[in-house]
């Protein structure tokens, strides 16, 4: 009987560690997937407006505020004029990533 309890306890601990490991990996990966989505949107706006113009920057800012709470900003390294077709546009996508290791920390501490 004692061996069954020990085995059950070990299985519960192993399952809990596996569950929280997967949950932690998903929590850490979320900001990276958001950055990929934002970068894709920035590239689409640059193509649509012919460069990182003021109109494109305004659309990018609105999208960031609406979908990501304003976490992302774009800094142009090539100016904000309309570019010729095929010209390289250099920019930096800056973002804030908040990673909470324990999602339910407010419930666990009270």
Question: How would you describe the overall organization of this protein?
Answer:
The chain is mostly helical and 110 residues long. It has one domain. The chain has a two-stranded antiparallel ribbon with strand order 1-2. Helix 1 runs antiparallel to helix 2. The C terminus is likely disordered.
Largest sheet: 2 strands, antiparallel
Basic shape: rod-shaped
Strand order, largest beta sheet: 1-2
Number of domains: 1
> Which stretches are low in confidence, meaning pLDDT under 50 for 5 or more residues running?
104-110
- Count of DSSP-assigned helices: 3
Q: List how many beta strands DSSP finds.
A: 2
Q: What structural class is derived from the secondary structure elements?
A: mainly alpha
* N-end to C-end Cα span: 36 Å
What is the radius of gyration computed over CA atoms, rounded to a whole number of angstroms? Answer: 22 Å
Average pLDDT confidence is 82
Percent in helix = 55-70%
How much strand content do the residues show?
A: 5-15%
Give the SSE order as H and E letters.
HHEEH
Outline:
With 110 residues, the protein is mostly helical. The protein is built from 3 helices and 2 strands, in the order H-H-E-E-H. The model is unreliable at 104-110 (pLDDT under 50).
List the keywords:
two-stranded antiparallel sheet; 9% strand; single chain; 3 helices; 110 residues
How is this fold's topology laid out?
Blueprint: H1 2-49, H2 54-68, E1 72-76, E2 91-95, H3 105-109
Helix pairs in contact: 1-2
